[in-house]
Each structure stands twice: as structure tokens, then as C-alpha cells.
Amino acid sequence: MSYTTVMKGFVLATALLITACAQSPQAIKVAPEFPAPTQANGSDSPVHIRVSDKRVNKVLGSRGGIYRDTSVITLANDLSLPVEKALSSYMAAMGYDVDSLNPNTTDLHVIFTSLVYDHPKEGGVGHDMDMLATVEVEARRGNEHYEGRYRVKRNQKFFNAPSNSHNSKMVNELVVEVLSSMFSDPRLVAFLQKN
Hints:
Layout: H1 3-21, E1 26-28, E2 46-53, E3 61-62, E4 72-75, H2 80-93, E5 97-98, E6 106-118, E7 127-141, E8 144-158, H3 164-180, H4 186-193
Parallel strand pairs: 1-4, 2-5, 2-6
Antiparallel strand pairs: 3-4, 6-7, 7-8
């Protein structure tokens, strides 16, 4: 076997290895789907829902690989509108009077301050993804107001790097999880239901 043949084989193997370790960038479409509520306890309380995206860093994270700085994960669409629509539908199913013209309507402003879905730099067995979502809530009605902050943080290990569809599923589930955590706050729920 000639030196040239050996070198061609080495270059090809190296190229295949690099390709296998590389991850392409991904833009995830935000389309959260809430499960059917277990209780409809909104009591027709009037509420107007707004969602804002005030994340300082619009990049969710990296997919990892040897080019982790370019294999980034971002959002393909605006975060505010699809989340606002899904949250409004969910609260309507919970029994709230959404977008009511009642003068005692509560203005519920949900502000995303962080959304992270990132493969950490440190290597190891399997493929880890760090997940974090934080929202701040401002609920106002007349001279009354309530503020809350809700956070979901976890790490999930995969045997292999998750696919595009799996990444999209995990990010949308993270959005639903942090928004659902708001309704575990009895003080916020009491404020929303107060007429």
C-alpha cells in the first residue's frame, strides 16, 4: 500500500470523524401546547394576558460538537405571540374570562427573562442538555398588584445528541413547564380570582 493511499485514507477518516462530531445550527419554532387543565377553577374571573420577551441573550445555547460556537440553537419565531395565544387558550379552558371588557379585569403581564437549552462544554458519557426558563409576572387590577418570579431548571442526559424534532419538543415543553408553575403559586391564583 503506497504512502499516498494511506494518507488519502487518513484524510477521509478524519473528515468523517469531524463531520460526525459537528452539529449544525438549529432554529426552533415556539409552539407550546398545554395539557387539558385538571380543574376549571377560574370562576369567570376577568383577565387580560400579555407576554413579553426581555431575554438579554436571544441564543438558547449550543448543540455541542467541536464547533459548538457556531452550532447554536435560536428561536425561529417571535416568543411573545405564540406563547400569549397558547396561555390565553389555556386560561380560558381553566374558566377565566380572557380579554374581558370588565372594568375589574386583571392585567397579567408575563415576562420571559431567560430561556436556555444548552449542551455544556464539559465532555462526559452521553449527551447532557442544561435547561432553564425564568419568567416574571406582574398582575395589576386598579390600585392592587402582585408580582412573582418562576423558574424551572434541570439537566437531562441523552445517549446520543438529540435530533432537531426532539430539541423542539424539549424547548416547548420547558416553556409550558415554567408557565404552568405560575398556577402553583396560591397567592397569584388568589389575586387572579379576586373580584
